[in-house]
Amino acid sequence: MKILIIKPSALGDIVQALPVLTGMRRRWPAAKIDWVVNDSLREILDGHPCLNKTVLYPRRRWNSPARLPEMWRWGRALREERYDITLDLQGLMRTGLMTWAAGSPRRIGLQSAREGSSSAYTEIVADTAISAAERYLTCLEYLGIPVQPLDFQLKARAPLPEALANFGPYIALHPYSRWRTKLWPWRYFQELVDAMPEQRFVVVGEGPWFPLEAAGRLIDLRGQLSISSLLTVLDRATAVLSTDSGPAHIAGALGRPTLVLFGATDWRKTKPSGAHVLIHTRGLFCSPCLKRTCWRDTPVECMSLIEPQKVRSLLLPFLEAAPVAV
Asked: In which residue ranges of the chain is pLDDT below 50?
């Protein structure tokens, strides 16, 4: 049995789809299972015990018709693998083309697929669940595989950054997102740090710089971590505070106590999975609006109304009762 999973991006979505991989491995322990992933995100899958190989998709490189011969050779290599099953969890035109190129006798996709990708499928799964994680798991149900929704088997393998070697327990802060409307006001992070003088903090992520200081008890690793190093930093955290973003999904999958702040996006659809994930939102009349730009006179009020003292009160039980990172 040879299986190809197609889920190139994004980081959080790949994490949410991992229980599909682990479920297939339980069902077919001797199968060869490969995964198509954006080359920039390969580290999230490197070394996964249920995966045989990552098939790298160089999306940024393939931005010109001049690359068509290269794309053709890539697709031909997929077909030469002779996969028995190809499962497209992305459901876009480009992944539909990948599914078609693989030429498997069973080409399975989701009913929610867009951009005409479903024309490449031989079988369509009715994914009517609200959350992305549950929609992916319907593929296991469709294949008759028992579902274990929190079976990610995601492990941190990179060494802890040297800067944290003797730092002690810490709360990881991830303040960034691609959407402006997902951001918690950056001044609030400083207020939170100041309101928790007994705690240490580590700041991670990539985005616009803003000042965040706490003498002797805050280490700033923004823009310095690979994906594999980020896994380790999150895995060692006592708790994680994040926006709706990929690192929040990683922290949840690692089993870390994770507080995720939601505003413009719908937590019912994109909530990170995990045994210790807590969601907080103010739920204004206009949220979730699912918009990247806020139209209100008070911009992104759904996030600015989440006060630092409230976040502190939500984090404290994590610090008192959370499982200790090892």
From this structure: 322-326
